[in-house]
Amino acid sequence: MLVQLYSVDPDTAWAILRAFSADTNRKVRDIAAVLVEAAGDNLTPTRDRAPSPHATLDRLYSGTPDQAAQPG
Fold first, then answer.
1. Where are the beta strands (DSSP E) in 1-72?
2. In the chain, which ranges are continuous DSSP H helix?
3. Domain of 6?
4. How far from the centroid of its chain's Cα atoms is residue 50's Cα?
5. What positions does the domain ANTAR occupy (predicted)?
6. CA dihedral 25, 38, 65, 62 (to 10 degrees)
7. CB atoms within 10 A of CB 19
8. Low-confidence ranges of the chain (pLDDT < 70)
9. What is the count of structural domains for the chain?
10. 5 CB contacts (<8 Å, ≥6 apart)?
11. 3-state secondary structure at position 51
């Protein structure tokens, strides 16, 4: 999902996940699960309005909806 949302290669997406994991002391698999659930619920931002990867992951993990993801 990070590859598509941020137009990065898989190695960069993996580095983003690892960095967020290290910064927040959370397991990568838990972060990935939140990302998958958010995408399934259409809570990820649109590609053209995506904030930084860290901000997106932080928002999704805290359960705060992203305004860019809301229809309207």
1. none
2. 2-6, 10-24, 28-40, 53-62
3. 2-69
4. 9
5. 1-36
6. -20
7. 13
8. 41-52, 63-72
9. 1
10. 44, 45, 47, 50, 53, 56
11. coil
